[in-house]
Amino acid sequence: MSTRVARDRVTGTPFTRGLGIVTILGIVWLVIFGLFVTPADVNQGETVRIMYAHVPGAWLAYLAFIVTALSSAMYLWRRTRSLTWDRIAGASAEIGVLFMGISLVTGSLWGRLTWGTFWTWDARLTTTAFLFVTYIGYLAVRGLGGTHHQRARRSAVLALLAVLEIPLVHFSVEIWNSLHQEASVAGNTDVTMDGLMLFTLFLGVIVFTLMYVWMLLHRQRALTLEDMLDDSGLDRALAARRAEAGVS
Amino acid sequence: MKSMLRTAKAIAAKDLRIELRSRVVTNQVIPFAALVMILFAFALDSDALLERVAPGLVWLATIFSVLFIVARSFALETADGALEALRAAGVDPMGIFLGKTLALATQLIALEAVLVGASVVLYRADVSASGGVLLVTTMVLATVGLASVGTLYGGLAAGAKGRETLLPLLLLPVVAPVLIGATRATESAFGTNGIDVSEGWPWLGLLAVFAVLFSVVGTVAFGPLVDD
Amino acid sequence: MTDVHADLRSGHHDHVVDVRDVVVVLGAFPALAGASLTVDRGEILLLSGPNGAGKTTLLRACAGLVPVERGHARVLGLDVSTERDAVRRHVGLIGHHNGLYSDLSVSENVRFWGSTVGASSAEIDSAMRRMGLDGRLSDLPVARLSAGQRRRTALAALVARRASLWLLDEPHAGLDADGRDELDAVLRAAASAGATIMVASHELERAGSLATRHVRVVAGQVVPVVGGSS
Taking the model in full, what pTM does it have? Predict the structure, then answer.
């Protein structure tokens, strides 16, 4: 019993340790390739290197939000109802918000260097900003309290609502944006990528995905432990309470 | 179905009767929205500019007011534990949603009418007969969408810690399509920048999709969101 | 109006409330730690006990408002976990809040609650009459009522929506002597008319005279009153 509990109280397993090592090696590889091996872009110069973090970050955020939506649906579906799905949804949303924040910051830094502006009211950017706020709201609702299943149901419904909003917001922003004929700066900055640059970008996506899986596993288990902490000692508390009644 | 409609009717009638008695929306929220319109005029300080942005200001003021009307709508329910009592009595949550949405929509339409009137007076907006038809349709569709999504998230935030800030955090990103669609349609109705009335109608598609989507989804999702 | 008691499923209809070894956990705290209790039709059962003993949670469990972790609870033959919505429609819980709209009058509030189940005007009038709210009082806004009148308005709402099990949490709190006497009178009348009433209270001398039976709730369990119940 005590060994089982002790083993339950860490979030690492041989698999996650191995995954962590692979991820760290991958990051080192990405840094070397991104900063030193790949050439500077003919148009953008050295700033193109931001892309190796920015693009995978954005990709990851979207992947994370898709995972949140899918596991929310799994939670709501009666046959697969389990708090594990809820914790995966929550953990994934947290990581998604983190990566979306990173990609917004790196994107605006890149924009400042390339376009001369931190922000442009481009459809993709605007949608991303709305998405960012929406998932901050989602995380706020997760923190509202109540029982675990109350939290799970509320946030699962909200996650599915967010999936409905995203296309609607994106579509409306896109047609709104198409009316403004400001010479779209985003249009003529096509990066002419050689094979090595494309490979590095691809490497970045893979490394970031590994990192995501690694973080998700740990975070999900940490959330499980948090929930267990709430539940633990129920039997002990019950016994104590029963004894209390006997005495009085 | 029958009990859902009966509940919806009872809730809507109750909310509107309370508004007739207390006049919170009439005497506080509508003056607030009108004040916002006046403050915009001070801030922008240019007749030409005001005329150009009038449609956007009408809908921005509407959306800010939605936050207050939704908060008021659920403050009634939580003041003496009525929302909890409704849940505890097993009252159909779909009926509660529809009833509160209907009452909210009625109050919003009144508010929008005042704001459109204010923009005619303050910002020299001009509405033709065909523009009027477009404008009324825009108001109806936008209102259904805003009232649905407002009731849905208002119910979620009701009684929660920090509900004053949670509601705008949840609501404002979602209503962006309504702000965009309604503003463009209203520009056409006002003839802002010489835009023709006929150019406004396609935007109503967006408003209609939003209204249908959130009224249907809201009816289904309200129960799970509000209930424990 | 169909009498719920006639609808009771066979085999389970001995008691209006049948709670066995119920455990209810709030957060990590076992608010009920194996409570057992039966209540029969027409009883006015007093639950006494210290604050935090689980009286309120027991009432909420009977109303289908808190999840039952272990054990089982049946109300009017319905399981509070699996048939929660049906249970809720037949049960009325009045706690710290009365669930009234202060801008509306007494009759408007009662009418609103009645309309959620499609009650007729005659039913609404009769509900108000039974709670002593007819005449001048019925048109007053709830904001201008005394605490006792508000509680009776909330009870009239229970009658109007045809709740047959009434769960009252500290119903005498905040009432003056007249208010208490009036409340006791209408509760006795309701019980003899067939309602089943559970009253949680720590004011023994007050609620004791009202109750037909008395149990104590201690540390999340129901214990018989020492010296026997009345």
Answer: 0.88
